[in-house]
Amino acid sequence: MLVHLRLVVPADLTDDVVALLLDDDRITNVTLERDAALQPRGDLVGADVAREAAESVLDRLDRTGLPHRGGISLTAVEGTVFDEADRVDRRAAGAGDDGVIWQVVRRDAEAATEASGAYFAFLGIATALAAVAVITDSPILVVGAMVVGPDFGPVGAMCAGLALRSPGLSLRALWLLVRGYVAAVAAVTVLALVARATGVLDPEMVTRPRPATGFIWRPDLWSVVVAALAGAAGVLAMTAEKSSTLVGVFISVTTVPAAGNLALALAVWQPAEVLGSLTQLGVNVVGMVAAGTVTMEAQHLLLRRLASPAST
């Protein structure tokens, strides 16, 4: 599995950068175009590197000063049909799917802490879907809410901040998560109050036995287990860039439904369900962050041992 490096290099750094790339047997297809870059001015250098070696190569490029004076971009190579690609992959320690590019993880985590309108909109819609799922006791709608929920972005960013020793990143992620849930729950609570005032919603719809969705506000030991598994799965998907729909559903199951139930419980004022929903939400977020951070820490420690170049 290869990733492609596209480098914009100031002319005075080009020889050092090209020598660095040519000296590493985990890199192939090194190309050079003099004076091809216009903004910033410089030479255009390309290379294909084994994914599991990309982090160490980026560290070495960082020491040349290139990130501050030029440009570095990475793209995944979708398919390789030449023999050297297999040889390069074999020279790199580990498996391609296990290779983590920590600089990319950090930048993706930073992006996940941005308070975009889309984030708030999706979280609000997901919470509303979860509320309807509670009213109708519909597990299908619970799944719909899981799919729409964007809340693992800041959860994963909190894990990255803790594992990569960036407390500011974790705090920004936590603040976004809190704001998102407060806004979503408040909006759905207002809608539920309007529905109650107009006779569309009756308190009995929320308080009656709900065999398919009652677990949403009743945290137990299995809530902790699911949260831990979800956190570990989510971090692995994030670091391996394998964020499939199935993983997204699995992660979101523990958070958005509790927020929807919380909004309804507030609207019909059921203190027991309010407390249960808040507890479920808190247990799951804490469990995901704890398990996700441990998983990322383990990856960081184990993969650093394999990060040194194969050739010295």
Explain the overall architecture.
It is a single chain. This protein has a four-stranded antiparallel β-sheet with strand order 2-3-1-4. The chain is 63% helix and 12% strand. With 312 residues, it is an alpha+beta fold. The model is unreliable at 308-312 (pLDDT under 50). Helix 8 (152-163) packs antiparallel against helix 9. It is elongated, with a radius of gyration of 24 Å. It has helices at residues 11-22, 54-63, 66-69, 83-91, 102-112, 117-136, 139-148, 152-163, 167-197, 203-207, 221-239, 245-252, 256-267, 271-304; strands spanning 2-9, 27-38, 41-50, 71-76. The longest helix has 34 residues, at 271-304. It is built from 14 helices and four strands.
Search tags:
312 residues; alpha+beta; four-stranded antiparallel β-sheet; 4 strands; 63% helix
Q: Layout of SSEs?
A:
Layout: E1 2-9, H1 11-22, E2 27-38, E3 41-50, H2 54-63, H3 66-69, E4 71-76, H4 83-91, H5 102-112, H6 117-136, H7 139-148, H8 152-163, H9 167-197, H10 203-207, H11 221-239, H12 245-252, H13 256-267, H14 271-304
Antiparallel strand pairs: 1-3, 1-4, 2-3
Number of DSSP-assigned strands: 4
Largest sheet: 4 strands, antiparallel
How is the largest sheet built, in terms of strand order? 2-3-1-4
Strand content: 5-15%
The secondary-structure class comes to alpha+beta
Large-scale geometry = elongated
- Topology as H/E string? EHEEHHEHHHHHHHHHHH
Given as residue ranges, the uncertain stretches (5+ residues, pLDDT < 50) are 308-312
Portion of residues within helices:
55-70%
Mean pLDDT: 88
Number of helices: 14
Rg (CA only) = 24 Å
Intertermini distance:
22 Å
